[in-house]
Write a structure and sequence with these properties.
heterotrimer; A mainly beta; B mainly alpha; C mainly beta; B: mainly alpha; Cytochrome Bc1 Complex, Chain D, domain 2; C: mainly beta; Immunoglobulin-like; three-stranded antiparallel sheet; 11 strands; 8% helix; globular
Chain lengths: 106, 256, 148
């Protein structure tokens, strides 16, 4: 299971714009670095990150090798309804990580 | 808590904020970083070191070894039992009667108490546990214990610190005592206090121990690094912690 | 990283040794921006790119991009594209947004191989492209670990 640290408020008022932060442990090997044997270490990055709120996409990001290791992303979302905010990361070497948080909107 | 005359004097000048320098002119490397990096360290929801802390908390509660014990089985809630502990290492281990650093202490527990294999140096698991334990000393004053063996190590460490070495013929003191806050190839030279270990070093793109950083320094100075198990590192760590006595821990730190 | 060596001899030549195949150039940068805009003009304004002007290490540079937009169904930012000038490849990230975001704001940490220009292009639901760029100076720690 991937090491993920998500920060989203547990409660919000309807219409409030909340900040959502997601941090995940991943080497984000660029594919441009030579290893100790002089050969290039193959690329191994997260390519896609997306978030849904009760199943509807609220954010999507395509990452490149220029995203720093242990990628951190912060974005905003309007709190409309209580439910589940789900996160998905996928990338090279079949990498897949998913995480969910619950939020109550009043 | 132990009484520490030096710490008491410093506390009178010192408001408890990590952002302030010591009244005596000592300052953490935290203060030498840009506001952007300080912000990265301060925000627990964005500090990459917190990924390791989270992993460490999981390991703390996981049973291991043939004894089938977790750290929690003996030490219960780390936020209570480990408070201030990282600020007091290197220390003398009861089992061996010899000085050991925090990572060494964790491995003594692994092998002696959990009957589990020792964790490899700089391994994710060992770093995670030391990050989780070090977090419990955040805001605490560095307070290395007093002991004859530690005193001897510190003396040795002080000698190494002042000893010129390598192709550049530099000693630690040349930069960190004689020229702190000045620039070296565009980078600000810190005073070199170990207040933030283990650190997430941007150069490593990973968390690492004080020992890794010291090897890094020695290689960076174009000197030959001592073998990994050499006592030089423990001597230097002991000296550095003594030199930083009374300073506030800001572990786990972010550093360039 | 770029290394320069000077050939001894009658003529002094600067040779750039690049351990990887190629790297982004101003032309590549212009090309990838055009892929996004289809040649539509880039307007200046509305977009702010918040990156420290001088960073201590290029491995993790904090970046926040914001676009001044009401984020309504009629008028919102559809996508934000970030490009660089001198990394081995010109992309940094693409982010797709909608009125569900409330604010057009993305923050992350990026890698910059050298001191260079970073460009942000925001695409709105009205088909407009707004852009800003900023120069970043990248320094590096003095004492670097050997790969061993």
């Amino acid at each position: 299971m991937a090491n993920v640290l998500v920060n989203a408020p547990k409660t919000a008022k309807k219409g409030q714009v909340v900040e959502i932060k997601a941090l995940i442990m991943h080497v984000m090997e660029t594919g441009y670095r030579p290893g100790t044997n002089g050969r290039i270490i193959p690329r191994n990055i997260i390519q896609d990150f997306s978030a849904t709120w009760n199943g509807r996409e609220i954010f999507r990001m395509k990452m490149s090798p220029a995203i720093a290791a242990n990628p951190f992303v912060s974005f905003s979302a309007v709190a409309n309804e209580s439910g589940i905010i789900a996160f998905r990361w996928s990338g090279d070497e079949g990498f897949l990580a998913e995480h969910q948080v619950a939020i109550t909107v009043t | 808590m132990r009484g520490l005359p030096t710490a008491a004097v410093l506390l009178a000048v010192f408001t408890g904020s990590l952002a302030l320098a010591q009244g005596d002119g000592r300052r953490s490397g935290y203060r030498d970083m840009s506001p952007a990096l300080r912000k990265m360290q301060d925000d627990d929801t964005a500090n990459p070191a917190m990924l390791f802390v989270q992993a460490g908390e999981t390991l703390w509660n996981e049973k291991a070894g043939t004894a089938g014990k977790s750290c929690a089985d003996c030490h219960n809630d780390a936020t209570v039992s480990m408070k201030g502990v990282a600020a007091r290492y290197p220390a003398v281990a009861a089992e061996t009667g010899k000085p050991v650093d925090l990572e060494g202490r964790i491995n003594l527990c692994r092998t002696n108490r959990q009957q589990a294999p020792a964790l490899a140096a700089e391994s994710d698991d060992l770093l995670a546990l030391s990050a989780y334990i070090a977090l419990q000393s955040r805001g605490e004053l560095i307070a290395p214990p007093n002991d004859v063996q530690l005193a001897a190590l510190r003396t040795k460490g002080a000698e190494i610190y002042k000893q010129r070495q390598g192709q550049l013929n530099l000693s630690c003191a040349n930069c960190h005592d004689d020229n702190p806050e000045k620039k070296l190839a565009g980078a600000t030279i810190p005073q070199g206090h170990p207040t933030g270990y283990p650190i997430y070093r941007l150069e490593w793109q990973a968390l690492g121990s004080l020992k890794r950083r010291l090897r890094n320094c020695v290689v960076g100075m174009r000197a030959e690094a001592w073998p990994y198990e050499a006592t030089e590192y423990l001597a230097l760590e002991s000296y550095l912690m003594e030199r930083a006595r009374g300073m506030v821990m800001d572990a786990p730190g972010v550093r360039p | 990283m770029l290394r320069r060596s000077f050939l001894a001899g009658a003529v002094t030549t600067t040779v750039t040794i690049v351990p990887f195949a190629a790297h982004a150039t101003p032309d590549t940068l212009a090309a990838v921006i055009k892929e996004v805009t289809g040649g539509a003009p880039l307007r200046e304004g509305k977009v702010t790119l918040d990156i420290p002007p001088l960073v201590e290490n290029g491995n993790a540079v904090p970046l926040t991009v914001k676009v001044d937009s009401p984020m309504t169904a009629d008028d919102h930012v559809k996508a934000i594209h970030i490009f660089n000038e001198k990394n081995p490849q010109p992309h940094v990230f693409n982010a797709w947004l909608s009125p569900a975001n409330g604010q057009a704001r993305v923050a992350t940490r990026i890698k910059l191989a050298d001191s260079q220009k970073v460009v942000a292009v925001a695409e709105t639901s009205k088909g407009e492209f707004w852009s800003v760029h900023t120069d970043v100076i990248v320094t590096i720690a003095a004492c670097i670990e050997d790969a061993t």
